[in-house]
Amino acid sequence: TPETQGLIFKYNQENKITNDDLEIVFPQGTLYSDLKFDFKKLPKLTSRAFSSIYQIGNKFVPLHTGFKLAIKADGLPENLQSKALVVSTSGASQGGSFENDYVSATPKTFGNFYISVDTLAPTIVPLNISSGKNMAGVSKMRFKIKDNLSGIKSFNGYVDDRWVLMEFDAKTGTIWYSFDNTVTSGKHTLNLIVSDMKDNVKEYEINFFR
What is the pLDDT of residue 1? Predict the structure, then answer.
């Protein structure tokens, strides 16, 4: 198993490791102090893994800033290259993009990392509206949006094909539209379009009354 143990990284200079499978760069200022750096290559984890797992550093050692990580893809189909990203074995996305056979990202912590893909669209769950519901006595429409991996990139709402301002609480993953006087009494159609960081798109449509 390829591994590196006992390298001393200096906090006041750039530190780099490069081999055929990956490149790791710690810009000056990434480390709080000099560090004995450990690195290990582990076997693939799942069928949705397109690289080995790379155990980089000690996850309990804090970093001042993120470091640059580029992992060479293994068996990544061309049609999934735009969906590729770096993830940790804890399931957290590190972001990233594919270029010249490598997926590059900037993790902010040490950990175990590998290449995966995000092909699933976000989910949209209505919280206080259902099809055909009379919303006359309600001040706002609320929805919960969630993405399985890469994270929410954008969301847009339209009432009767007119863009409306949707507000977002990132802590709860809740978005809402507060009714204004442009939504008059009668039947209306709401369209929601939510996309994630890998441009997977979910569209949602519902009719309601005021």
Answer: 43
